[in-house]
User: Fold these one by one.
Assistant:
Number 1:
Amino acid sequence: MSAYFDNKAPDWDQKQDRSDRARQIAELITARVPPSGKDAGLDFGCGTGLLGFELAAHFKRFVFADTSKGMLAEVERKAGEAGLVNVGTLNLAEEQLSGAFDLIVSLMALHHIEDHGRAIAGLCGHLTEGGHICLADLDSEDGSFHADEIVPHNGFARSEIADLLQRNGVSVTHSQTGFVMRKQVDGREREYPVFLIIGCLKARA
Ligand SMILES: C[S@@+](CC[C@H](N)C(=O)[O-])C[C@H]1O[C@@H](n2cnc3c(N)ncnc32)[C@H](O)[C@@H]1O
């Protein structure tokens, strides 16, 4: 799977709807979780960092984590061009996540991960007390979103993601449709909503 995303990385930002999606999700996140004054942020499954770059300037340290070397190379190139010195990358294919984060965001990554429950549990374990996790991904769909490409999950029921957060001690504070993707499928336009679920770790048990 990482070779697949390595190949996609150089042209990833060419599709306008990906940037629009990230920008809209970032606006919704900052409206609910004002980022100013926060220490550490994480974009999990960051790709080229479209979501994280909308938020990174507000943090002392912002980590972009992914399993694709190619995607992370794009993040490093973009951070260098923008002169961002508070930004780091983490290749999760080689190294584990460490440290605690005040804000963890993830956009369209979970449906590419077989054991998404384990991934969510892992992320919740890296939240600071009072920290927020914001998960945005496809609502359950019939498999037409990825056409011929096989992915581990054809989206998710929002209730399942909310349950997973709650089981890991995180209270769900907000849930909404964050963006609607549109695609031509079999000659007609189809809509694929993307949810945004926000949780807060009030106190560690
Ligand atoms: C559909 S892309 C989304 C990228 C970016 N978040 C965006 O919205 O443009 C999914 C990303 O998840 C990454 N990914 C897949 N499996 C992963 C895993 N187990 N841990 C972290 N990232 C993973 C892929 O390499 C890819 O960059």
Number 2:
Amino acid sequence: MNSLWTETARIPGRNPLPGNRRTEVVVIGAGMAGILTAFYLQRHHIHVVVLEADRIGSGQTGYTSAKITSQHNLIYGKLVKTVGEETARLYGKANQLAVEEYGKLIRRYGIQCHYEEKDAYLYSVQESEKLLKEAECARRLGLPATFERETKLPFPVFGAVRFSGQAQFHPLEFLRDISSGLTVYERTRVLKVQGHEVITNRGVVKADKVVFATHYPFINVPGFYFTKMYQEKSYVMEIGPVPSIDGMYLGVDSKSYSFRNAGDKLLLGYGSHRTGSIPKENPYIAMEQTAKHLYPDVEVLGKWSAQDCMTLDGIPYIGTYSVLKPDWYVATGFGKWGMSTSMAAAKILSMQILGKRTPYDEVFTPRRHHIRASAKTLVSHSLKSVKGLSGGVLKGAVNCPHLGCRLVWNRYDKRWECPCHGSSFEINGKISSNPAQQSIPFID
Ligand SMILES: Cc1cc2nc3c(=O)[nH]c(=O)nc-3n(C[C@H](O)[C@H](O)[C@H](O)COP(=O)(O)OP(=O)(O)OC[C@H]3O[C@@H](n4cnc5c(N)ncnc54)[C@H](O)[C@@H]3O)c2cc1C
């Protein structure tokens, strides 16, 4: 599967790990989170090696919509209710600073990545009440939020929350430049981590600290991330030519769309569902019909899907991997907002590795327990996992190599998907998304 980004950016290839090595920090994974973390560590004169199973940006970062924003759907009202005003304020501040940091980096290093400042909007075609409340809550938390009655979308809305001064870019052009001075070994899969030894298919790297920036952390014990995270899939369609809609948009009603321009094209996003819970409606057909309805002369130029890790309380896990592994760090659970949160993670983890505290450590620590915010998701995640696992023992089931759940066929995407933890595999069984780390034998 290709995306607009994978089709249009050429990132120079890197060699695999040429044998055993010693370094201060190993970062596993060369997506947005891993590359930014390595970049800030290197800026602080730490010796870093990045190990990537495939290619730089070949994971979910290559398939994102690449909006850089602290506007994460209707999160602020929810966070105030479930984790309190102070934690919600710090969550917003970490992400808003991350948005601004992208602008600073891109200007400072002259990175050519189609970076454009844009306002971000949450819109509804059904009601304005919850948007008014969200705008008011976000403003109280210090975010650049206003409530608007009109937008440049090609249909009327009831209202919208506008966050000013946000941005969009080409994520792989950005990664190409920001990774250029880093030591990255591609086609080097980490198989095991034993204490300070990172064991790959190409050799062993010994390190003082290890960062897991692998989208989904693949070591199950300790950490137990598989018990506190699931994945959600969404679909993207590239259409054009389309006039500017002057902003980045996300609908809050059910069955609504995400919009952003990319030059004279438009990226439509649609159809969120738990990976492995296949919807009845074909999302690509729905998107094409909507595209043709809104823009009758438009052509479909591309389509793809992506998935992201969802935590129980809606806040990413950034910090030490487990109390039992104080020298292991993790950045995951970005909830489809991994552009700003990868930057926040990179800043937080690089400080923690330098032995410094940040005001955001407690907000994102994987060790937190927000019972009120997590209970409902925990119950439904556990039920789905038990169902998937029990299906795995049935005769004739195609099982996931991660923990043995029964895989489900996604007929729209032509992939096998795990309903428990979200691993996915191409039609021929080749692994396409973790936490599984190996392919499944060829399926006829
Ligand atoms: C449809 C969709 C649209 C989205 N749009 C937006 C958006 O507009 N704005 C936004 O902020 N966020 C968005 N997101 C979320 C965002 O794309 C992700 O959160 C982000 O890309 C995750 O980056 P990452 O570095 O954590 O993971 P990845 O990019 O997946 O990187 C992880 C890397 O680790 C490597 N790896 C895995 N296991 C190993 C191993 N054992 N050894 C070595 N390497 C390994 C993988 O090969 C991969 O390259 C969207 C998500 C979806 C699903």
